[in-house]
Amino acid sequence: MDPVGVAAAVPPDAGPGPAWQGKCPWGAPSTTSISCSLADVMSEQLAKELQLEEENAAFPEVVAVAEGPFITGENVDTSSDLMLAQMLQMEFDREYDAQLRREEKKINGDSKVSISFENYRKVHPYDSDSSEDEVDWQDTRHDPYRADKPTTTPRRGFVGKGKDITTKHDEVVCGRKNTARMENFAPEFQVGDGIGMDLKLSNQVFNALKQHAYSEERRSARLHEKKEHSTAEKAVDPKTRLLLYKMVNAGTLETITGCISTGKESVVFHAYGGKSAAEDKVIPPECAIKVFKTTLNEFKNRDKYIKDDYRFKDRFSKLNPRKIIRMWAEKEMHNLARMQNAGIPCPEVVILKKHVLVMSFIGQDQVPAPKLKDVTLSSEDMKKAYHQVLNMMQQLYKECNLVHADLSEYNMLWHDGKVWLIDVSQSVEPTHPHGLEFLFRDCRNVSQFFQKGGVAEALNERELFNAVSGLNITADNEVDFLEEIETLEKMNEDHVQNQGKKLSMFSSDGDPPIYDE
Ligand code: ADP
Ligand code: MN
């Protein structure tokens, strides 16, 4: 610390030194250097530093593994004991619940009157908030927001999570083996005297311990070569890491290799797919994990997309910000599913867990496909891309009943000789109160990009808008054009007001809305 700065921080009326110094019967003390002045101690800065230190002690950020993945089945970076404790607790709780269920079954047998142990079930703190609001739809074939299919999925009284794997292996034998295997952990890893006892560790608990032991080994090995914290490490909070850890643990993902992109609203990671945990799902060899950021500021200005989306209207008012963010992830999942159904090239949804969406990776060998803005296409490819994009916009509108609402060369990837659409969390149905304005903006981006790119036949934004929407707005300048768009939107709103329900705007399954009547 700068000593001059410290001196300057002392208020001028404090004099050259403390008052007692002059009167001290043993004379002035020799110039002891005061390492920390009162002003220093009192400073907010210091308080912050101490706070930070404390936090770091509780959640030490482990140095990035420069040479490899940061979460794999082999090496789960359990960088904090707290986290490990939570993971273990979770596994224990799960087993406890499973045991409870077995006992419940045994007691009830064939009896007509059954008793329930429901109240005795443990709910893990990290899971506790999920029981009421977690959206774990892995079945993307069912889009609960479809106009023709109102949500009828009954909410059951129980925490319907996962299958209890009733393993064929003998738990006792397996458990003993696991306990014995703990001996293989590094010597400095404290395993207690469990080895000597007849302790039976389940596979899950053993694996968690094993992973911790290994990561501890690696950690101490690389402690002195401190490197920059990786973006990947920093980008996710402990809760998200736990979610990712669970996915690796469940075998859905094999390895999470690192960060592809850090945006304002999301962080995207690359991962290698696992060996398919779910029965019928084939997990793509490479996956992209989109983590919607749980810091809320950036999402505030996106309210308009979702607040006015009738699909979410009933839910929006009741939701807290954390749930709203999950809704973005959910929205992206359903929108991707619609696009997939229409055959539009886009990532395929693998799994959704809270605010984490796993999808197929567009690219190869960890290298993401370039955005249209970054790739230099031959004029022939450029032309091809344009026609494909025009086609996709029409499909999106007519078949998926969607407007991308953030379509530009930033959200189109060039892969395998064609354009892939991504980033559809903000996409809305055309009847959204601002849906047509969003569409117009999309059209402007696309039109400008391809016109600048030298595609002679590229329609201008107004022509493109009509071509996509099937509307016939004749205004020949942007101001009038937009005015007509807003009139249409207004008409639609009034119609909704009169009918009371927006559903009436749809003639049948997934058809485009009727604007002109
Ligand atoms: P944001 O809202 O942050 O723009 P995006 O969905 O556009 O989120 O993702 C950010 C970036 O991550 C993209 O520009 C793209 O480079 C990369 N990306 C996203 N999804 C995938 C995917 N499925 N395959 C490959 N790269 C992807
Ligand atoms: Mn994007």
UniProtKB/TrEMBL annotation:
Cellular localisation: Cytoplasm
CDD domains: RIO3_euk
GO annotations of cellular component type: cytoplasm
Keyword Coiled coil applies: no
Predominant subcellular localization, coarse grouping: cytoplasm
Reaction equation(s) it catalyzes: L-threonyl-[protein] + ATP = O-phospho-L-threonyl-[protein] + ADP + H(+); L-seryl-[protein] + ATP = O-phospho-L-seryl-[protein] + ADP + H(+)
GO BP: any one term: defense response to virus
Keyword Transport on entry: no
Keywords: Antiviral defense, ATP-binding, Cytoplasm, Immunity, Innate immunity, Kinase, Magnesium, Metal-binding, Nucleotide-binding, Phosphoprotein, Ribosome biogenesis, Serine/threonine-protein kinase, Transferase
Enzyme class: transferase
Family: Belongs to the protein kinase superfamily. RIO-type Ser/Thr kinase family.
PANTHER family per UniProt: SERINE/THREONINE-PROTEIN KINASE RIO1
Protein name as annotated: Serine/threonine-protein kinase RIO3
Encoding gene, per UniProt annotation: Riok3
